[in-house]
Amino acid sequence: MTLVARTTRSVSLTDAGRRLLESASPAVAQVRAALTEVTAKPGEVAGRVRLTVPRSAFHFVIEPVLPKFRVSSSSAIW
C-alpha cells in the first residue's frame, strides 16, 4: 500500500495516506494528551488552553494576567 507519492519536486499523500491520516489523527491526539497528563507534575497546569471570551473581557481581565500565567504554566499548550 502506497501512502505517499513522491516526485523530484514534491511529496503528497495518496488517497490511502489521507484516509490513514484522518483515521489516525484522533488516536494520536489522545496519545499526546495522555503523555502530557502522565508527565505533568502534581499541581502543575498542563495541556491545551482554550479560552472563549468576549473581546472586552479579554482586554480587561485575561490580557493583564496572561504573561504571568504563561511563565508559571510553561507546560500549557497555546
Automatic annotation (TrEMBL):
InterPro entries: LysR-type_TF_proteobact-type, WH-like_DNA-bd_sf, WH_DNA-bd_sf
Domain of life: Bacteria
Gene3D superfamilies registered for this protein in UniProt: Winged helix-like DNA-binding domain superfamily/Winged helix DNA-binding domain (1.10.10.10)
Family: Belongs to the LysR transcriptional regulatory family.
Database matches in SUPFAM superfamilies: Winged helix' DNA-binding domain
The protein's name in its UniProt record: HTH lysR-type domain-containing protein
